[in-house]
Design brief:
The protein is an alpha/beta fold. Helices cover 36% and strands 25% of the residues. It has eleven helices and twelve strands. It has an eight-stranded mixed β-sheet with strand order 6-7-8-3-9-10-12-11, sandwiched between helices. The radius of gyration is 21 Å and the shape is globular. Bound molecules: adenosine-5'-triphosphate and magnesium ion. The site of magnesium ion has 4 residues, from α1. One of its GO terms (biological process) is transmembrane transport.
Length: 310
Amino acid sequence: MAEKLLEVKNLKQYFNAGKPSEVKAIDNISFDIYRGETFGLVGESGCGKSTTGRTIIRLYDATDGEVLYDGVSVHGNKSKSEVKSLNQKMQMIFQDPYASLNPRMKVMDIIAEGLDIHGLVKNAKERKQKVIELLETVGLNKEHAERYPHEFSGGQRQRIGIARALAVNPEFIIADEPISALDVSIQAQVVNLLRDLQKEKGLTYLFIAHDLSMVKYISDRIGVMYFGKLVEMATAEELYKNPMHPYTKSLLSAIPLPDPIYERSRVRTPYNPEDHKYGPDEKVEFREISPEHFVLCSDREFAQMKKEIK
Ligand SMILES: Nc1ncnc2c1ncn2[C@@H]1O[C@H](COP(=O)(O)OP(=O)(O)OP(=O)(O)O)[C@@H](O)[C@H]1O
Ligand SMILES: [Mg+2]
């Protein structure tokens, strides 16, 4: 039986709650992440992916719902030592490699910050040694330690972000679109690096992306998000074989294939939420259509999907 490392239960994150400008960035989502797996979270810009990551690591208080990490509630009143322990176990690689590194700090100090906070090194020599080791782990070298973030390319900055996250020996890493700001030629390198690190260190990942092309290859399970809601969740294989929600189908239809004949005839299926035509009494819920495969749908849609599923 797979062990649940993270449990997200009925999580809500409303910005400007109660005001006319209210945004339901996360609107009642639930999912688990098992120890050692990669859980991919996909959806278009603004659907709430980063907010989900940021709420999980306590950058935001949740409006409602619960996040459990290894059985311990993440939100609410916590002692200093509990917060410190959670901050060490959960790390985030931020979406924007340009904005997420302090421009006035040398790479040495950016990476060593977590080491200092968590008392993981005894002296300056050990600190320097550890930073150099981390730089080498992510494919950089000791000369880079004395430089400032603006002296690096986007791919290198993302590597610095990865080194910073790794510094405190986390178990769980939220990688928020770690490759989307990078050149295509560098994307595979960073993904391979994350994969190798996972194998080596037994890491668990929440991997956020806006399309399915890369997530398909690296995720064990995938959740598809649309306007603050999870609309489908399944193993990567099942999601590709049996996409059930029309939004998932639309996302899949957007992936180009290296096949010119297929490409010429590929049509992007648009998603129109109006197509559901839900009646006022219809209950739209996240339902299990086959083991571990969930779809947000009404009873009527569920019955129809049951007939279609392969
Ligand atoms: N601090 C904030 N205050 C108010 N609204 C916010 C805040 N952060 C995010 N939002 C809104 O919440 C929604 C979800 O934003 P979020 O950044 O989570 O989307 P995303 O899925 O990560 O998008 P992208 O793919 O562009 O990174 C958006 O409508 C956004 O404008
Ligand atoms: Mg985002």
